[in-house]
Amino acid sequence: MSTRALFREDAYLTRCDATVTAIDEQGIHLDRTVFYPLGGGQAGDAGTLTLADGTVVAIADTRKAKFEGATPDDAVHVPAPGQEDALARMKAGDAVKAEIDWSRRHRHMRLHTASHLICAVLPYPVDGCSITSDYARLDLATVEPIERETVEAKLNALIGGAHDVHTEWITDDEMAARPELVRTMSVKPPMGLGRVRLLRIENVDLQPCGGTHVRNTGEIGTLRIAKLEKKSARTRRLVLELV
């Protein structure tokens, strides 16, 4: 039931042709997909799977598949409630057209890229994060005070600087030899496939990440810090929203 994760090759792909490999209690498995599964703090994609006869199955979420030998790329598409009739028409071997909710995904991409910029503005370890279509939340391990206006200004300056964003690959062994690249305390680098994807924001940031991102920081748009609070004695929580 191995899945080819097309979103890792091109985050701007919105649809693809695929074949159903299995349907089980987890959801629908495909041989290839443009749907990003929940992971690394980023929410899973929603969208539709359309059969050759026009039957549409609404997908409410995408998760990492759980089975013996599963890799980080193996995804399962979770149908929305009330899809029983449509699901009854679907079986393993069927050809489908998979299409994501692009508006939702693009917001994920913009906010996820912005969270990397925060790592450059505030160089503290990240002790938890959540990327949704409404906000990006980062918990930073620091006791230092954070000035909202200063951070907001620096963040939007990096966005306005129109820095190119692209991915690079290193081997698992190379990743193990460069622990300084890891900024997150709660999320491990996406290892296990023999190589690790790095996200580089030119002249700004470099760190391992398996999520989806925009091609240039200028695409993010204006952001504001919606919330800045003391989560614990050693952690500060910051919530970003698109303006």
TrEMBL record:
Residues 1-238 form the Alanyl-transfer RNA synthetases family profile domain. GO terms for molecular function: alanine-tRNA ligase activity; aminoacyl-tRNA deacylase activity; ATP binding; metal ion binding; nucleic acid binding. Its main location: cytoplasm. It is found in: Cytoplasm. Keywords: Aminoacyl-tRNA synthetase, Ligase, Metal-binding, Zinc. One of its GO terms (biological process) is alanyl-tRNA aminoacylation. InterPro entries: Ala-tRNA-synth_IIc_core, Ala-tRNA-synth_IIc_N, Alanyl-tRNA_Editing_Enzymes, Thr/Ala-tRNA-synth_IIc_edit, Transl_B-barrel_sf, tRNA_SAD. The keyword Hydrolase does not apply. Its cofactor is Zn(2+). The keyword Ligase applies. One of its GO terms (cellular component) is cytoplasm. PROSITE patterns: AA_TRNA_LIGASE_II_ALA. It comes from the Bacteria. PANTHER family: ALANYL-TRNA EDITING PROTEIN (PTHR43462), ALANYL-TRNA EDITING PROTEIN AARSD1 (PTHR43462:SF1). This is Alanine--tRNA ligase. It comes from Caballeronia cordobensis (Burkholderia cordobensis). The lineage of its organism: Bacteria, Pseudomonadati, Pseudomonadota, Betaproteobacteria, Burkholderiales.
